[in-house]
Each structure stands twice: as C-alpha cells, then as structure tokens.
Write a structure and sequence with these properties.
The protein is α+β, with helices and mostly antiparallel strands and about 240 residues long. It contains three helices and 13 strands. Strands 1-2-11-8-13-6-3 form a seven-stranded antiparallel β-sheet, with helices on one face. Strands 7-12-9-10 form a four-stranded antiparallel β-sheet, with no helix packed on it. Strands 4-5 form a two-stranded antiparallel sheet.
Length: about 240
C-alpha cells in the first residue's frame, strides 16, 4: 500500500466556476470542486489498491435477498446490512483494511471547510473539525445503471457528521428529511471532486442516489467510467 503521507492534502481548493458552498439543510453543506484533480487521481489509485485487498469489492445483499447495484469496499470497519464488523463475515471472513491516517486528516479538513462560520452559523458545528476522527469508510462504486435508494446512515453509535466525497461520473444526490423517505427532499447535482457533509440536525436525514449520469467523468480525474463515493463515518464502536 502507498505511503499515507503522499496525499497532497495541502492542495485542497475549489476547481470549479460554480457558486461556493451551499447550505442545503441545517447541518448539510455541499462544497463544489473541493478535491483537486491531482487529489482525485491519487484517490483513484488508492481505490485500485483497496479493491485488491483482503476483502474484494462486492455488492452487499440486503435482508430478503435483494442485492444492491452499488459495489462497496470498506476501510476500518466492514459494513454489512445493517451492522459493522471487523471481519467480512458475509464475504470471506477476512479482516478489513485499516482506516488510513491521511483520511482522518482529510475528514477533518472536510468538516472544517463545510462548517466554516461563513457558511454555517452554528457554534456547535463550527467547532467539530478539530476532534473529528472517522474510523470507517464505505467506498462505493457506481457503474452504469447503479443507484442507491433512500436510506438513513444509522448503524453508527455516534452522531458525528458523515463526510462524502465524489469522484468520476456526476449524479443526482437526493437529500431528504429525518422522518420519511418521501418529500420534502432536495436534489443536489454532485460532480467529480465535490464534498458533501451532513451532521447536526440533518445527521439522520434520508438520502439516496436516484441517478448517475454515465460518461460524464472528467478525463483529469483518473477514472475512465463510473463513480467512486467515499463516505467517512465515526462508528462509536471500540
């Protein structure tokens, strides 16, 4: 595996002409173009290594036998519907890869960027970045036709924010409410390099990906097709 220290974290800066960060809901912030193309290519190379690790990229099977269209490889903790384990008992029983130190640092920078006082006027959120320590990541790959139904991220024992990074094909990210899978929701177009953070009163909002737009990945991102989505979480598990 590559040296954690190689991640060019100091280069984080917007690369788009889009408007700046957008507050989608209280505690939910979209930051367009947050990852540079250099960073995206670096993460794509790490993704190729992760998929060759002890637990292969796989489509999880939900209770009832339905197989998800999205394929996932996990870091730190292995997610299987609907719990976390250290070993991939639903795949091959092997331990998952460690959660990398560079991703902890990146997660803190992400929370700091999303919850800057100029964007979020909530002191309880403004102060979260320094102590934010994610210990699990679900790295999802969306191929042509893949989608994600509306769901809550509620298998964690922590209410710390979820950090989501997108690389590759653009998509529609549907961000809803905490009570129901149906309206009201907001459809947010996510492009390669975008950051989305949700915490606070929006931490347990329903969300999903109804549509990925094939062949929209910019050539500079390092991914020829499909979409990589990294979601960092704090599990609250020991």
């Amino acid at each position: 595996m590559s040296d954690d220290g190689l991640f060019p974290v100091e280069l984080v800066q917007p690369e788009t002409d889009d408007a700046g960060p957008r507050l989608v809901a209280p505690g939910a912030v979209h930051v367009p173009g947050w990852l540079t193309f250099e960073q995206q290519r670096w993460i794509v190379a790490r993704f190729a290594e992760w998929t060759q690790g002890p637990v292969p990229l796989r489509a999880a099977t939900l209770p009832g036998g339905h197989q998800m269209s999205v394929k996932t490889v996990c870091l730190g903790w292995h997610w299987q519907p609907y719990r976390y384990t250290r070993e991939a008992t639903d795949v091959n029983g092997r331990p998952v890869l460690d959660f990398p130190d560079w991703m902890v640092r990146l997660g803190r920078k992400a929370v700091a960027a999303a919850y800057a006082p100029a964007i979020v006027e909530d002191a309880s959120l403004n102060s979260l970045a320094e102590d934010y320590t994610p210990d699990a990541a679900l790295v999802n790959f969306y191929d042509d036709g893949a989608a994600m139904g509306m769901h809550q991220d509620k298998d964690e024992r922590s209410g710390a924010p979820v950090v989501s990074l997108s690389i590759g094909d653009s998509c529609v990210f549907r961000f809803g409410n905490t009570k129901t899978r149906t309206k009201p929701y907001t459809d947010v177009p996510l492009q390669s390099g975008d950051l989305f953070v949700f915490g606070g009163s929006s931490r347990f909002a329903y969300h999903g990906i109804p549509k990925v737009h094939p062949r929209t990945a910019p050539s500079e991102c390092g991914l020829t097709h499909g979409r990589i989505n990294i979601t960092m979480r704090v599990t609250g598990l020991s």
